[in-house]
Amino acid sequence: MTMTTPNNPAPTRITVQIPTASGDAIEAWVYLPAGSGPHPVVVMAHGIGAIKAGGLSPFAERFREEGFVAIAFDYRNFGGSGGQPREVLSVPRQRADYSTVIGWAVAQPYIDPRQVIVWGTSFAGMHVVELAACDTRVAGAIAQAPLTDGLAAALMAPPKIGIRLFGLALLDLFGSLFGRQPIYIAGHGKPGDLSIGATPDGLFGERLMTPKDGTPWHDRVAARSLLSFSWRRPVRRAASVRVPFLLVVPQADAIAPVPAALEVARRAPRAELFRSAGGHYDVYEGGAGFADVLRTEVEFLHRHAGTSAKKNDGA
Fold it and tell me: What phi and psi, each to the nearest 5 degrees, are found at residue 100?
């Protein structure tokens, strides 16, 4: 970290490489609030195929301004993190990455280990539910436009598209056994396209997810990735979530099943539900619901971890 002088103030965001057991480092952006801490922390990751440079900064920067450390990271095999082949999704690996980043965070002297909030958007909702249910280091959770039922999400695809995607997933998995390069599927598209997000708002979502800073992004996942989550149903763990849990559920979501997210809100004993305007991508900056979503999340953070944030920000 840069030394602090009157002409060289402490940075508000630093980039760190967090080691993993596999040897592939996780790249994370750490947003640092004013004051020496210890501060509460929000550990953040994106949805399927997306990277931290594509839409997480507006949330992380606001959390930092409110007195929280925000750590936005890329999963292994994606973005700035290590791992080969690229853009191959594994649910267990991604959940392990969350756990690794949490472990790194609580070891930092400027972070309050009793105030760890996990935050996830879209596909990361699967991980957030599981972490909130079983990771004792987690003091609260936020999931926006969350995918909480892989089977229900798979059934949302038109049958012809679903069959073609499943066939590609099997073919890609078979090829991987012989060391072949992945078969990739586009992350976004319009209805009828062979892509994961082939919805009426798919191209709108692609635009919002494209990094504004020029960070390379391929907007794709290996077809075999579909076999990693279509049978996973964290909605069934909702009753085990005992920490405060904010679910931001769009009024209309063509990608993440709304009934499953509402079921999590109904079952989790300390859940709070906010219905955001618009569709799946309207929770992000540039979307119809962004301002209200961000305000609601900040209010949740201050209710459940804000005392420490205000104290260490000099409030």
Answer: -65, -45
pLDDT, block means (10 residues), the chain with 315 residues: 44 96 97 94 97 98 98 98 97 97 98 98 97 98 97 91 95 96 96 93 97 96 94 95 98 97 98 98 98 98 79 56
Q: Classify the C-alpha dihedral 124-83-71-222 as positive or negative.
A: negative
Instruction: Check residue 1 and give its pLDDT.
Output: 36
Q: What is the pLDDT of residue 7?
A: 45
Q: Are 233 and 261 in contact (CB under 8 A)?
A: no
Structural domains of the chain, with CATH: 13-154+232-312 (3.40.50.1820)
What is the DSSP annotation of the chain? -PPPBTTBPPPSEEEEEE--TTSPPEEEEEE--SSS--EEEEEEE--TT--TTTTTHHHHHHHHHTT-EEEEEPPTTSTTS--SSTT---HHHHHHHHHHHHHHHHTSTTEEEEEEEEEEEGGGHHHHHHHHHH-TT--EEEEES----HHHHHHTS-HHHHHHHHHHHHHHHHHHTTTPPPPEEEEEE-TTSSEEEESTTHHHHHHHHS-TT------EEEGGGHHHHTT--GGGGGGG--S-EEEEEESS-SSS-HHHHHHHHHHSTTEEEEEESSSGGGGSTTSTTHHHHHHHHHHHHHHHHHHHHHHHTT-
pLDDT given at position 11: 85
For residue 310, the model assigns a pLDDT of 61
Cβ partners under 8 Å of residue 163, min gap 6: none
Query: Residue 5, class by beta-carbon neighbours within 10 Å (0-12 exposed, 13-18 middle, 19+ buried)?
Result: exposed
